[in-house]
Amino acid sequence: MATKAMLGSRIRRLRRDKGLTQVQLAEQVGISPSYLNLIEHNQRPVTVPLLLKLTEALQADLASFSTGDEGRLAGELAEVFGDSLLSGYGAQPAELRELASSSPALARGILALYRAWRDAQQDSVLMAEKVFQQQQQRPGGLLGWKPPPEEEVSDFLQAHLNHFAVLEDAAESLWQEAGLGRGDVDRHLVEHLQSVHGVRVDVVPSSQAAGLVRRYDPGARRLLLSEVLAPRSRSFQLAHQIALLRCRPDFDRLVEGSQLSSPDSRALARVALANYFAGAVLMPYGLFLAAARDVRYDIELLGHRFRTSFEQVCHRLTTLQRPGARGVPFHMTRVDIAGNVSKKFSASGIRFARFGGSCPRWNVHAAFLAPGFIRTQLSRMPDGTRYFCIARTVRKEGGGFRVPQSRLAIGLGCEVEHAHELVYADGADLRNEAADVPIGSACRLCERTDCRQRAFPPLQHPLAVDENVRGLSFYVTGPAAPED
User: Fold this and answer.
1) What does the pLDDT read at residue 356?
2) CB-hemisphere CA count at 13 Å for 362?
3) Distance CA 406, CA 307 (A)
C-alpha cells in the first residue's frame, strides 16, 4: 500500500457503520474534526501512521482500506455506462469511481441489473430460435436469470484476492503431518489417505478410467487415478482429494458466507477451493515464496524444484498475498486458441473485461505463434498504468497417440514497478515508455482509434461508415491509408 492514499469515502462509510461522528473519530485518532472532514472528502491524503490509528479506532483490518475492489467496480461500471443503452447519460469516470467508493452495494446492484438485461437480450434470441425450431422453451425464462456459476466463482475468488489463510494453514499442517518435506510426495500422500482417511488409491489403465482422471468412491473408500496423469498431476489430484475429505467444514464456511446463488456455483467454488489447497500443499507458502524470491520468479526453475507444472506455478504465484509476507502481485489469465478465457485472477489491479473478449494485443494471444517459448511484453492501459507481462503456451496432458492435442496459453503479469524482481525483465528498458504496447481490456471499451487490430467500434462512439474512406481498420477512420 502506498504511504499516502485518498481513502475518504471508505473511511466515511466505515465511520458511519460504527455509528461514530466525525468529532468522536477525530478525538480517538488524535486529529481535529476539520482535518478528518478534509480527509473524508479526499482533500487530504492518509499517511501510514494515521491509517494504522484509523484501523484500530474503526476495528477494521488493512484489507478494509484496499482500493482494489473499488477500482474493479469502477471499471465494470465504466463498461456498463459505455454501452449504447446508457452512454447518453454522460457518466464521467470520476463519478463512477465515487459511486464505487461511497456506495459499493448500489454499484453492484447496477451491475446485476445490467447483467440481467444482457441475459434477457440473449434469452429473447434463444427463445426465437427455439420457437422456430419447435423446441422446448428454456427453463427459467427471462425472470429466472442467474449469473453463470463460473462467473460467480470468479467473483468469489477475486473478493478474497485469491488468498485463503485458513487453507494455507491447513496445507502447512498436512505438509508436517504427512512428512512431505522428506521427498516422494506421491507416496506420502497415498499413505496419508490410507492411514488417516481409510482411502485406498489405485492407478488404473486409461481403458478402465472411462475418460476420467480421478474418481472417488465414498462407499468403497477407494480413489482411482488414471494412468494418463503425469506424476505432478497425480500429486495434485491426491492433494485435491485430501482437501475434499479434510477441509469440507472450511469450504462450507467460506461458501455459505458468500454471494454464490446456486448449488452449481457453490459446488464449483468447492472445487476451486480444493484446487487452491492442492497447490498450497505442493508449494507450501513460506518455502515457495522464499524460493520464488531466490530464483527471481523463474517459473521453470520453480516447477523443477516443487515438481509442478508451468500453469500450477503461475496459479500459485497469484495467491502470495499473506499480510506481512506478500509476493509480487500478479495477474494471470488462461486462454485457448480461439481466445476463450477459462481462468483469470488479478492481484496486480488489471481489469479483465466481463462482458466481452480480451484485447488482441495482449501477448497471451501471440504466444500461440511460438508454442513453448516465453514471450515478454511491456504494455500500457488507457489509464496510463504500465505492466510487464510474460506468456507461454502449455499442452494439456493426458491421452495417447490418438488423443487430439490441446494447447492453452498462460499469461502472467505485474505492474512495471515490480518487474525488476523478475528474471524475465533482465535487459528490458523498463523506463522506456515508447516501448509500451498500448492495450485495453476489450475492443468495446478501448477508445484508442489508431489500433489496426480493432474488431469492434468503441461503445462510446457510434459506427460511422463512409464508403469513400478507409482507415487503419474498418472501424477506424483517419488519414488515408493504403488499401491491402
Assistant:
1) 58
2) 31
3) 22
Q: Which three cell numbers stand for residue 224?
A: 482411482
Give every strand in the sheet of 200-204, ordered side by side.
200-204, 222-226, 214-217
Measured between its terminal Cα atoms, the distance across the chain in Å is 49
Q: What angle do CA 320, 394, 346 make, to 5 degrees?
A: 30
The length of the chain is 484
Instruction: Tell me which H or E stretch contains 388.
Output: strand 386-395
* Cell (9 digits) for 201: 488409491
Residue 258 Cα distances to 160, 234, 251, angstroms? 10, 31, 11
CB atoms near residue 119 (< 10 Å): 17
Q: Which residues lie below 8 Å from residue 218, measured CB to CB, with a gap of 6+?
A: none
Number of alpha helices (DSSP H) and beta strands (DSSP E) in the chain:
17, 13
Q: Which residue has the cell 459499493?
A: 104
Question: Could you tell me the CA-to-CA distances from 8 to 39, 44, 222 in Å, in that order?
Answer: 5, 8, 56
Whether residue 36 contacts residue 25, with contact meaning beta carbons closer than 8 Å, is answered with yes
CB 455 within 8 A of CB 443: yes
* Residue 93 CB-half CA count within 13 A: 7
* CB atoms closer than 10 angstroms to residue 247: 23
| pLDDT tens-digit map of 111-125 | 888 888 877 776 565
Please answer whether residues 288 and 316 qualify as being in contact, where contact means their C-beta atoms are separated by less than 8 angstroms.
yes
**Contacting residues for 449 by C-beta, under 8 A, at least 6 apart:** 458, 476, 477, 478
Closest C-alpha among 185, 217, 223, 187 to residue 203: 223
- Total-model pTM: 0.72
Scanning the structure block, which residue is given the C-alpha cell 486529529?
31
How many beta carbons lie within 10 A of that of residue 187, not counting itself? Answer: 13
What is the average pLDDT value for the chain, to the nearest integer?
Answer: 83
Q: pLDDT digit string (tens) for 403-425?
A: 777 899 999 999 999 999 999 99
Q: Residue 473: pLDDT above 70?
A: no
Closest CA to 458 of 386, 356, 364, 378: 356
The conformation of residue 473, written as its DSSP 8-state character, comes to: B
| Spatial contact of 299 and 310, defined as CB atoms under 8 Å apart | yes
Residue 8: which residues within 8 A CB-CB, separation 6 or more?
39, 40, 41, 42, 43
Q: What is the pLDDT of residues 186-243, one digit of tens each?
A: 999 999 999 999 999 999 888 777 778 899 999 999 999 998 888 889 999 999 999 9
